[in-house]
């Protein structure tokens, strides 16, 4: 099992050992004092940690999060990371993301399209980690377009959803195709299916080439 | 360096939240840069902590505005969708009549309306004439399917564009009201009395010219609270409903938050109106 980043711990909630971070609750997750459970079933990054992937996360680093939605996962990230930029392009979930960002003074919400990095490159600095969970067609392309935000030692932690690319094809074929595209800009270090937490999702750890 | 002028804080007073947030929303840069370092070098912030504090305030403000604008833009999509749905329905029905007339002369058992056309579309044509009728019927089925898909789309999107209105009126009627008003913002600015007769413009003008009684309701007639209320109380029901719809539209436009109280109040009011009918029958 790989080590958890600083600021992420395994703690008991209702007699069950779960990942947890310290911060204000966001989505009705169980809390114990300052700690709140990080539900891996609702978070692909949580599932990547649960399945023991070598994420390289250490805590305190800068993060660019693509596909932040209502802030479920990015709120946990901001709890243990340093300055965290959260990009989401749908207005409705972003409204909830604002609520998650309000008490987190190093979480910066941005209503932007992750396919157009030039529209936020004037705000976002080069980061240590990109977390991506966009679940729309062209996931590898989104990651490639954002590779410019990572310095050489940075990591991409991406979740690829097979059904976002092709609803009928065999997921493993879809993953192969997406990984091939990803290799234009990245060296893939590790991949792992995220079952039982998320069906037909592939967790990917990569670094820029 | 061009990079410096790309920074969200370049050339604006970062203390001016409106101006700075405008830059976050509309600015761009070819490449990311160590903005925090640059900001401190340029004296925009005393240190990186102060820079991040300011960035938090500005991105919160920028994104709040962008969200409000984005959700408003959603009303345009809803308007197109509801008009497209009505066009598909109307065209499908017109063509279904044509199919019925034509098919009636070829297939003695041909049914009527959209269902009749769907049935014809399933048949195997045996000659060139039948082939054309079946093909035409297939278009009817396609249009009817598209109308259904558009309805589905409206049902899915209306609650995020106008949560209160969609809850009170139902997604499709909510979309119709927004379309008739020409947008959520103009609907939000209309008094309840106008919302009550939206879609009854012809009847209203006839009334204003002194040629007809004033209309009691426009499209809101399709709402169960109006249609399902006995004739004598429909005016009160339409007034109660349009009053709450006006409040809902304002809430959706100005705040965008769902407020369950509007619905509860309307339910109470409707219960009172409908109780009158029961009292009278009891007597
Ligand atoms: C599966 S959800 C993300 C859930 C979130 N990561 C979490 O765990 O809390 C995918 C999100 O990506 C967003 N998205 C899809 N394409 C995007 C794009 N091009 N730019 C920004 N966001 C995008 C969608 O609107 C949706 O909210």
From TrEMBL, chain A:
PROSITE patterns: FIBRILLARIN (PS00566). InterPro entries: Fibrillarin, Fibrillarin_CS, SAM-dependent_MTases_sf. One of its GO terms (molecular function) is histone H2AQ104 methyltransferase activity. The keyword Methyltransferase applies. SMART domains: Fibrillarin. It is an enzyme of class 2 (transferase). Residues 1-30 are annotated as: Disordered. SUPFAM superfamilies: S-adenosyl-L-methionine-dependent methyltransferases. Residues 7-21 have a biased composition (Basic and acidic residues). Pfam families: Fibrillarin. The keyword Zinc does not apply. GO terms for biological process: box C/D sno(s)RNA 3'-end processing; tRNA processing. Keywords: Methyltransferase, RNA-binding, rRNA processing, Transferase, tRNA processing. Its EC number is 2.1.1.-. Interacts with nop5. Component of box C/D small ribonucleoprotein (sRNP) particles that contain rpl7ae, FlpA and nop5, plus a guide RNA. PANTHER family: FIBRILLARIN, RRNA 2-O-METHYLTRANSFERASE FIBRILLARIN. Involved in pre-rRNA and tRNA processing. Utilizes the methyl donor S-adenosyl-L-methionine to catalyze the site-specific 2'-hydroxyl methylation of ribose moieties in rRNA and tRNA. Site specificity is provided by a guide RNA that base pairs with the substrate. Methylation occurs at a characteristic distance from the sequence involved in base pairing with the guide RNA. NCBIfam families: PRK04266.1-2, PRK04266.1-4. Belongs to the methyltransferase superfamily. Fibrillarin family. This is Fibrillarin-like rRNA/tRNA 2'-O-methyltransferase.
TrEMBL record, chain B:
GO terms for molecular function: snoRNA binding. PROSITE patterns: NOP (PS51358). GO terms for cellular component: box C/D methylation guide snoRNP complex. Residues 161-275 form the Nop domain. SUPFAM superfamilies: Nop domain (SSF89124). It comes from the Archaea. InterPro entries: Helix_hairpin_bin_sf, Nop56/Nop58, Nop_C, Nop_dom, Nop_dom_sf. This is Nop domain-containing protein. It comes from Halosegnis rubeus.
């Amino acid at each position: 099992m790989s080590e958890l980043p600083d600021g992420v711990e395994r703690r008991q909630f209702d007699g069950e050992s779960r990942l947890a971070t310290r911060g204000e609750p966001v989505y009705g997750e169980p809390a114990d004092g300052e700690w709140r459970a990080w539900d891996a079933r609702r978070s692909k990054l949580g599932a990547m940690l649960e399945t023991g992937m070598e994420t390289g996360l250490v805590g305190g680093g800068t993060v660019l999060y693509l596909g932040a939605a209502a802030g479920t996962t990015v709120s946990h990230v901001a709890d243990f990371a340093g300055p965290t930029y959260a990009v989401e392009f749908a207005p409705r979930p972003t409204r909830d993301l604002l609520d998650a960002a309000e008490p987190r003074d190093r979480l910066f919400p941005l209503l932007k399209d992750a396919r157009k990095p030039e529209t936020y490159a004037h705000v976002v600095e080069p980061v240590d980690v990109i977390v991506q969970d966009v679940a729309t067609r062209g996931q590898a392309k989104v990651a490639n377009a954002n590779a410019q935000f990572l310095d050489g030692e940075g990591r991409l932690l991406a979740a690829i959803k097979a059904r976002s690319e092709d609803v009928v094809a065999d997921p493993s074929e879809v993953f192969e195709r997406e990984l091939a595209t990803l290799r234009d800009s990245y060296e893939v270090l590790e991949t792992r299916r995220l079952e039982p937490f998320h069906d037909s999702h592939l967790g990917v750890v990569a670094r820029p080439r | 360096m061009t990079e410096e002028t790309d920074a969200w804080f370049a050339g604006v007073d970062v203390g001016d939240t409106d101006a700075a947030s405008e830059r976050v929303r509309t600015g761009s840069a070819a490449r990311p840069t160590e903005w925090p370092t640059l900001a401190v070098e340029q004296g925009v912030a005393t240190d990186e902590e102060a820079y991040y504090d300011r960035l938090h305030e500005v991105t919160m403000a920028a994104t709040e505005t962008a969200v409000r604008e984005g959700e408003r833009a959603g009303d345009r999509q809803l308007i197109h969708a509801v008009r497209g749905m009505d066009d598909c329905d109307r065209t499908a029905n017109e063509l279904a009549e044509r199919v019925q007339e034509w098919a009636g002369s070829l297939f003695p058992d041909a049914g009527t309306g959209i269902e009749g056309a769907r049935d014809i579309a399933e048949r195997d044509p045996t000659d060139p004439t039948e082939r054309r009728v079946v093909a035409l019927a297939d278009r009817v089925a396609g249009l009817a399917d598209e109308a259904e898909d558009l309805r589905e789309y409206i049902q899915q999107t209306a609650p995020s564009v106008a949560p209160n209105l969609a809850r009170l009126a139902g997604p499709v009627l909510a979309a119709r009201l927004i379309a008739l008003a020409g947008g959520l913002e103009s609907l939000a600015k209309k008094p309840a009395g106008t919302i009550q007769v939206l879609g009854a413009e012809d009847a209203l003008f006839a009334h204003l010219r002194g040629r007809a009684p004033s209309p009691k309701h426009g499209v809101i007639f399709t709402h169960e609270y109006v249609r399902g209320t006995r004739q004598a109380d429909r005016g009160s029901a339409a007034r109660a409903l349009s009053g709450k719809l006006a409040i809902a539209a304002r809430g959706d436009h100005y705040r965008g938050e769902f407020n369950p109280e509007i619905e509860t109040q309307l339910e109470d009011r409707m219960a009172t109106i409908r109780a009158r009918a029961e009292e009278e029958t009891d007597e």
